[in-house]
Specification:
- The protein is an all-alpha fold.
- The chain has two domains: about 30 residues; about 90 residues, no CATH class.
- The protein contains four helices and no strands.
- α1 runs antiparallel to α2, α2 runs antiparallel to α3 and α3 runs antiparallel to α4.
- The chain starts with a helix and ends in a 7-residue tail after the last helix.
C-alpha cells in the first residue's frame, strides 16, 4: 500500500512540474519581444534556481519532514527568498542568470542554522 502512495505522490509531483514548465513557456511566449530574453533570464532564472535550491533543501532534510516547524521554516525562507529576489529584479537594470548562484552559499547555511535551532528547541518525546 505504501508504494502506491509514493507512486501517487511522484505522479502528482511530475504533473506539477509539467504544469509549472508549461506555464513558464506560455509566460515566456507572451513576454517575448525586444526584451523577452532578458525577462526570461531574470524571472525564468529565479524560478529555476529557486526550484533547485528548495528542492535540494527539502530532499536533504527528509528526516525532518514529520516536524511541522520544518515546513513552517521552509515556507518562511521561501517567502523571504521570493520577496528579496523580486525586489532585486524589479530595481536592477542588468541581471545575469549566473548571479543567482550567489544565493546558494548564503541561503543553504542559513537554512541549516535555523533548522538546527528549531530542532534543538523542539521538545523531545518520552518526557526527556
Amino acid at each position: 500500500m505504501r508504494w502506491r502512495t509514493e507512486r501517487i505522490f511522484d505522479f502528482a509531483t511530475y504533473i506539477g512540474i509539467a504544469i509549472t514548465f508549461s506555464a513558464g513557456l506560455v509566460w515566456f511566449a507572451s513576454a517575448s519581444g525586444p526584451n523577452g530574453a532578458d525577462q526570461f533570464g531574470r524571472w525564468g532564472g529565479l524560478v529555476i534556481n529557486t526550484a533547485i535550491l528548495f528542492g535540494y533543501i527539502i530532499k536533504e532534510s527528509r528526516p525532518h519532514w514529520h516536524i511541522g516547524s520544518f515546513w513552517m521554516l521552509t515556507i518562511v525562507m521561501f517567502s523571504a527568498h521570493v520577496v528579496v529576489f523580486t525586489a532585486i529584479l524589479l530595481h536592477i537594470q542588468e541581471w545575469k542568470v549566473l548571479w543567482f548562484l550567489v544565493m546558494y552559499p548564503i541561503e543553504i547555511p542559513l537554512f541549516g542554522l535555523l533548522l538546527d535551532r528549531i530542532i534543538a528547541t523542539r521538545p523531545r518525546k518520552g518526557g526527556m
